[in-house]
Amino acid sequence: MDHQPFFAALQRIYPKERLLTKGVQLLAYESDALTSFQTKPSAVVIPESQDEVIETVRLCHQFGVPYVARGSGTSLSGGSLPIENGIVIALNRLNRIKKLDPEQRIAVVEPGVVNLQISQAADRYNLYYAPDPSSQSVCTIGGNVAFNSGGAHCLKYGMTSNHILGLKVVLADGEVVEFGSESLEGVGVGPDLIGLFVGSEGLFGVALEITVRLLPKPELYRTVLAAYNDLETAGNAVAMVVASGLLPGAMEIMDRLSIKAAESAVDAGYPENAAALLIVELEGESEQVETEFEEIMDVIKESGSYEIRVAKDAEQRLRIWKGRKGAFSSVGRLSPDYVVQDGVVPRSHLGKALAEIDRLSQEYGLDVANVFHAGDGNLHPLILFNGREEGALEHAEELAGKILKMCVELGGSITGEHGVGMEKRNYMPAMFSEVDLETMKTIRRQVDPKEISNPGKMFPGGEAPALKMTGMHPLEAKGIISRE
Amino acid sequence: MQHRIDIKKYGPRGEAMAEAIQSCVHCGFCLAACPTYKVLGEEMDSPRGRIYLMKEVLEENLTVEEAQPYLDRCLGCIGCMPACPSGVRYDELIVSYRAFSEPKRKRSLMDNMARRMIAETLPYPNRFRAAVASGKVGKLFKGAMPEKLGAMMGLVPADLPEDKPLPPIYPAKGRRRARVALLSGCVQTVLNPDINWATVRVLSENGVETVIPQEQGCCGSIMMHIGEEERAKKLARQNLQVFVPDEVDAIITNAAGCGSGMKEYGLLFKGLSEEAEAEKFAEKVQDISVFLDSLGLKPPAELREPLTVVYQDACHLLHAQGIRSAPRNLLSSIPGLTLLELGDDGLCCGSAGTYNIEQPEIAHQLGQRKVQHVLNTGAQAVVSGNIGCLTQIQSHLANRGVSLPLYHTIELLDWAYRRKAQT
Ligand SMILES: Cc1cc2nc3c(=O)[nH]c(=O)nc-3n(C[C@H](O)[C@H](O)[C@H](O)COP(=O)(O)OP(=O)(O)OC[C@H]3O[C@@H](n4cnc5c(N)ncnc54)[C@H](O)[C@@H]3O)c2cc1C
Ligand code: SF4
Ligand code: SF4
Predict the structure, then answer these.
(1) Residues of B in contact with A264 (CB under 8 A)
(2) Cα B277 from chain centroid (whole Å)
(3) What does the alpha-carbon distance between residue A439 and residue A52 come to, in Å, rounded to a whole number?
(4) Which of A22, A77, B98, B299 has its CA 20 to 30 A from that of B46?
């Protein structure tokens, strides 16, 4: 396609510092946090106003040029991977908190605002934004909305979708729409369009303005660290807590490898020699937390833990969390290459799932580090491999595929929060029938008839963006997955 | 991150560069800590982006020239390192990369002149003093580079304080608890010789004898920082000759950048005959605050008037050397002094060696941000462990028409001890 008129039109919107077309500039945007995929876009635009985004999307629609919105590029599934011959709309300068209303407990923010910045701004009113992905110090609200991101504390408070009250969006065909409202009551009238957009992985359009719910900061935290001699017992401990009827703010598990990685990164002071660590955090009103704390300690004492520690102060609590939140990246200290999976299993099957992962890890001769949101059964196996070895990535991907299949077979899902993106699109048929997928596509075409908004992601096959990794997907070649 | 760098091509430092790139997992956690990313919001101007571009250059997919604008904008503040869970040695990467790329790039005549001027003047106190006194700095830049001239001249006071050379040995008071050697530094001795004097007096008060090798020179850190590797080595060699690490408990510096630079002497001489000697030297290097804090400070006297100060973390103390609590402990031990925090996560003030001169616009924005935080605290004075930060903050306060006293940590301690002597 001749892009000339399209670029001429872009030049009318953007000064040259904000319309990046040089090779070196484009290279910097060719991957997100999943570097096994790389695609150089034709251009990157850096809008500074909502109007510029709207005009850009309209141009893309008019000229049929695909685009991908980008926040901080921390997607672990290739979600913000550029499209070949398409453009990247980098939203990082749309980073204003437009309104923060402590009375109504809401904030209205632009999509490039970083998750943690909302809580920092709300802090003086003793409020905070609850969803806390481990990447919260850097990922944007726009990205969180697109992926319906979760975090350790989503066990109690729910994922991103539970905290979005309103959205202003430019749809792929250039129409600007507003969903929801500023009031909590407004949600629930009519079809749940917010629910449709949140988690749509940028396939419907670009979020321009987001109204989020703020919560009062918990009065008290009680953070307990329990060490176990094996991973399965730790997994079973989670099931015991769930069965006791208590609802902690967070329940996380780290295994031996991830403990080692986190410990070398932040000196978190975790018990030595543990095969697994369970972090349980209670939070809320002081009185209730104190009562629940006694109950939960009883459960944990019964659960087979050989060492139990309780954070004495805020600093100790933060150290525990710092280790947990940096765990993914710190695995880079153990191995430069890894693939992270994001499968979900019912909590009652946690122990079983972990034992199976261990078995697979041995069968494949690859180390697997486990660090995950145990409370909601969201596993994060990190499969370590040496990218310099011929075929190592494919071998690791194959193991990843087996783990995902197991998740589906146990009644879970292929993704809990990282999204399908580029990486897991070929596993969709394992979860959804062809009719389901066709229905999803039909809905998508209603708002994006030309399929220009982040095309090639989420759905198997289709117009795949040209990747450096070409040919049949390794899992396809091995017959584990199929695109039919 | 996988890479296809042919390590052998890049000499002894190839390994260090490849290692850093390989340990980066492209997670982006460093973005929030990077001052240039904060200001510009572009991937190329983030640590992750820079690592990626360096990888591409070393893989020969990109030329040095293409990547240069973005790597030049890196402050070398190392704010990205503590933020990185994967332990990427960005410090080793950028210093090595600059050493590799500097000889390969084309610079304009003016640029070359400016760099030569910096390299020939800043590290040599006498030349620097003479240049400022004669107004030569100004003349050289005039017309051709008004903004750079402005940045540089704005930081250099019209009247320089008198030169006050240090003696070869400054004795300990009372029982000797330790013996150290002091790096007297270059730019700082010219701009404020009192900092060194305060240092030796405070050491003496605490029973520490200080040796000041008279043949020493600039430590070479600024040259390392801007990729002038050969010049850096030349300067460092001089110091390797005149300091004798075995004879002292520590080699002390009171300038943040010198401390972090000298701790990298091992890397500077990697694969060369001086490597072992350089490592030995590096192991002895300590910032004055860390040395005093671990020695255990003699209690200072109460200040005459209560004073509320805000402590500014120098990047090359906090990020590059991980020094956070030592200076705070020292300051808090002064009765009558209230210590406030800036609350800006130690974001660089934009001073960073010659950055002010080379990237004046970004340096300006960062300086403004910093003084806004300073003013928000309502402190009566600003304290830092590095003269570069103090000069930067001073000039940006002046821009806002505000004047606040600025002190080096050691100056306040010196004050308190001298007050004790009076009472
Ligand atoms: C170390 C690490 C730990 C992580 N931990 C967690 C975790 O605990 N929980 C979790 O859920 N995720 C986690 N993630 C994944 C990632 O941080 C989240 O998916 C995050 O929401 C992505 O935000 P981003 O700003 O980086 O978006 P990007 O990666 O830039 O984009 C992600 C997707 O959102 C789309 N998008 C971005 N902005 C908009 C917009 N305004 N409108 C429409 N679409 C948009 C993009 O097109 C893309 O498809 C982690 C990632 C890393 C690297
Ligand atoms: S935080 Fe570390 S590993 Fe992550 S992108 Fe930055 S340098 Fe790379
Ligand atoms: S050294 Fe400073 S400016 Fe350079 S990439 Fe790191 S944080 Fe950014």
Answers:
(1) 87
(2) 23
(3) 32
(4) A77
Euclidean distance between the first and final Cα of chain B, in Å? 62
**Per-residue confidence (pLDDT) for residue A2, from 0 to 100:** 60
What pLDDT does residue A248 have?
Answer: 93
Residue B48 CA to residue B133 CA, distance in Å, equals 43
Write down the pLDDT at residue B138: 54
- Which of the four CATH numbers 3.30.70.3040, 3.30.465.10, 3.40.1350.10, 3.40.50.2020 does domain A97-216 have? 3.30.465.10
Distance from CA of B85 to the nearest CA of A (A): 5
Count of structural domains within chain B = 2
Probe residue for ligand 2, chosen from B19, B21, B30, B319 as the CB with the greatest number of ligand atoms within 8 Å? B30
A94-131 b/e (C-beta count within 10 Å ≥ 16 → b): bbebeebeeeebbbbbbbbbbbbbbbebbeeeebbbbb
3-state secondary structure (DSSP) of residue B20: helix
> A418 CB less than 6 Å from ligand 1?
yes
Give every CB contact of residue A150 below 8 A, 6+ residues apart in sequence.
A131, A133, A159, A160, A373, A376, A378, A416, A417
Instruction: Mark out the alpha helices in A343-481 (DSSP H runs).
Output: 350-364, 392-409, 428-431, 434-447, 474-477
Question: How many pairs of residues across A and B have Cβ atoms under 8 Å apart?
Answer: 112
The strand pair at A164-171 and A205-213 is best described as antiparallel
CATH value at residue B77: 1.10.1060.10
Determine the distance in angstroms separating the CA of B2 from the nearest CA of chain A, rounded to an integer. Answer: 6
Among chain B residues, CA nearest to A325? B85
For chain A, the structural domain boundaries read 4-90, 97-216, 220-330, 336-368+380-477
For A312, counting Cβ atoms within 10 Å of its Cβ (0-12 exposed, 13-18 middle, 19+ buried), the class is exposed
What is the torsional sign of CA A14, A16, A22, A25? Answer: negative
Q: Residue A209 C-alpha to ligand 3 middle, in angstroms?
A: 30
Residue B30: per-residue pLDDT:
96
A8-17, A310-319, B136-145, B231-240 — which is least confidently predicted?
Answer: B136-145
Domain span at residue B303?
298-422
B4 contact A CB<8A: no
Give the model confidence (pLDDT) of A394-434 as tens digits.
Answer: 999 999 999 999 999 999 998 888 888 888 888 888 888 88
Q: Show which of B76, B104, B132 is a domain's final residue.
A: B104
- Asked whether B210 and B254 are in contact (CB, 8 A), the reply is no
CATH code for position B346: 3.40.50
Sort strands A87-90 and A43-45 into parallel, antiparallel or unpaired: parallel
Nearest ligand by distance to the CA of B362: 3
Instruction: Single out the residue in B79, B104, B129 at which a domain terminates.
Output: B104
Q: Which fold has domain A4-90?
A: 3.30.43
> In the predicted model, is pLDDT for residue A232 greater than 50?
yes
End-to-end alpha carbon distance in chain A:
29
Tokens of B20: 């850093």
Residue B27 lies in a domain: yes
Q: Which helix (H) or strand (E) holds A156?
A: helix A154-157
Residue B194 lies in a domain: no
Q: What is the three-state SS of A282-321?
A: EEECHHHHHHHHHHHHHHHHHCCCCEEEECCCHHHHHHHH
Residue B287's beta-bridge partner residues?
Answer: B253
ipTM of predicted complex: 0.87
In a domain? residue B90: yes
d(CA A165, CA A179): 8
Q: Residue A236, by phi and psi: left (phi above 0), alpha (psi -120 to 50) or beta?
A: alpha
Minimal Cβ distance to B44: which of A24, A139, A337:
A24
Averaged pLDDT for residues B375-389: 93
Substitution target from A70, A72, A113, A136 for chain B, most B beta carbons within 10 A? A72
B78 Cα nearest atom in ligand 3: 1
